[in-house]
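Q: A reviewer asked whether we had any structural model of the full assembly, not just the individual parts. We don't, so I'm hoping you can provide one. Inputs are below.
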Amino acid sequence: MNGRFGVRAGLVAVVAVTLAGLVTGCGGGGDAAGSTTIRFVWWGNEDRAKVTKAAVDLFMKDNPGITVQTEYAAYDAYFQKLSTQVAGGASPDLVQLDRATLGEYQHRHVLEDLSPYVGKTVDVTGIAPALLAGGQIEGKQYAVPGGQTTQMLAYDPAVFAKAGVTPPSGPGQSWTWAQFGEGLRKVAATGVAGTTDFGWAIDWFEVWLHQQGKQLYTGDGKLGFTAADLTRFWTLTGDLRAAKAVTAPEVTTKMDGSMPNSGLVTKHAGSEINYDSSLSAYLSSYGPGVKAAPLPADGTTSGMAAMPPVTFAVAQRSAHKEAAAKLLSFLVNDPGAGKLLGVARGLPPNTAIREQVCGAAQAATKAVCDYEKSVAGRIGPATGLWPTGSAAVKRDFQRGYDDVIFGRTSAADGAARVVQTAQQSLGS
Amino acid sequence: MTQAVLDRPRAPERAVPRRRRAGQGPGYLFLSPWLLGVLVLTIGPMAASLYLSFTDYDLFDAPHWVGLDNYVTMFTRDDRFWHAAGVTARYVGLSVPLKLGLALVVAMLLNRARRGAGLYRSAFYAPSLLGASVSLALVWRAMFSTGGTADRVLAAFGLDTGGWVDQPQFALLAVIALAVWQFGAPMVIFLAGLKQIPKELYEAAELDGAGALRRFRSVTLPMLSPVLLFNLVLETIHAFQSFTGAFVVSSGRGGPSDSTLLYTLYLYQRGFTDFRMGFASAMAWVLLVVIGVLTALLFRGSRRFVFYAGEGR
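A: Here is a predicted structure for the entire assembly that you could use as a starting point for your response.
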């Protein structure tokens, strides 16, 4: 009997030692006395990473007690990683979100309500109320805009000039869909598609829809368009595709807003619709000549809107919310940080910083400032938050369009399926 | 000498009498690091996922019990689930026979080679070592993209297919090619099996006037059948679980147009991009059951074609 107890005691000891190892292993990363370590993560290209890290360095210099670790990735990879980290209990402290994901994460209690920090740690007085609303859900400030952006057509003037097409550029200038289509066809005649097929993103459909006096989502988070609306939009792009005025399916299917997969950057197209927060990325990836033109519109409504390209939010599971909020406020409001960040996330959200940045603007920064100035009179306020489920709707939209461009289904059937699955995604 | 690689599983031993169990304590003691690992890292998570499959767990909030909802939705209201199952069936059905066929052919060639056999063996095995790596799948994507190496080589032969990974009718083939190219592991096992076939059998067959094809059919295949079964089971299970290739080639989307949406990839999307971890857990259990049933069927069917030396058949 004694022997057995001895064995049992030994077993317990081994188990205890092994468990202790596990526990201490998990509890690593403790902070040295008086210092706080927070993690800040975002998606974006190298340019954005470079200036963001510089701004973070400046923050650490001003706040010796806080160490900031940074991580960044491309859009898809970023969100794959973020969800895993948050679920695994290793949540970053300050995160970057966009319209499709803000509601998604807020709804699942991942984000801290920043309202109590506003006016204390987080200063939002410099941000225009309409822009600031892009981070509010049900009256609470869950996120703060990291910039302001609007839709644009990024194009290579050399390619367009060769085809004898001059996109509108001056303040208040515009073009109709017919003029736009005609221009794309002329460019196509020179051997390169006029633009990247813009039927892939629900974002560009939103602009078109807005011009028809409709919206993607109603105020109470329901779908605001019908299959007939989407069919009309996809027929518009389908006609251009048939004339080879927009990119072929093989190019379009790869679109994800990133530079390596861009139809313009890979020289399959002479232009591309995107947010102007990406203009500096086009300038460094494609070449210094890239210019921005407004999206076409037939009526008086341009359909374009000023909105935050990204928002910053503090994780609910962060152990250092105060420090994370401090960094957030610094990135948005500090003149030094503003100068470093420039237009890496569109125009600076803080109006005073924006004037300072645009006043001293050169090259890429100047291009964004000039474009925003030229369309300022024609862009509306943000078209409302995207509800929970909109991230899935966005993915299904692109998938549906893939089926259409590869001829696996008609525009009408594809649109009907998108509407049907969207209603399911929004309902849950 | 002709010990088969796969022995028939022996009947389980009778439960050990209680008295003798007492002395097994030290055994368990030495096993404990492994035992703990299995409990914490395998059995625990599996039990958790079984529970989660009956909930609406979304990764972040506490799960709520929803009964069989996930399973019912999956089978009755989810088009993409069936689509993914179809893509996976095509993937398994094509990649496993092609891979095993190629492995067997190369193994037989290597079995005859005298000079440099070791070098060739290593060279053919190398892709298997690198196989699961993301970097290799990235290379694959670049090779088979529009304007990539494969596109240009095929175009030079007049086959203007465009980039395989960018077109729905070819994308799965590119992923299958990636899997088939990693035939090294079954090849090495085939090679070991081939080396165990007694030379006398071939000599006897040759004396009886059997040609190469006849020798292959009547000597090689039967003698190799246990190894064949082993490889078949292993590769089938691997193919069902395949994920990295399709994930990387399609940038995690399963595209173009859902053509590379393997079951595991859809499972991943459900769990980590749609935040429906409960649903994803249910999918994982369905996959486990399907693989289990298929493996059982393979073993059952194997009685017809597997020959175990020394059975006197």
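A: Points you may want to mention in the reply: The radius of gyration of chain B is 24 Å. Chain B is about 70% helix and 0% strand.
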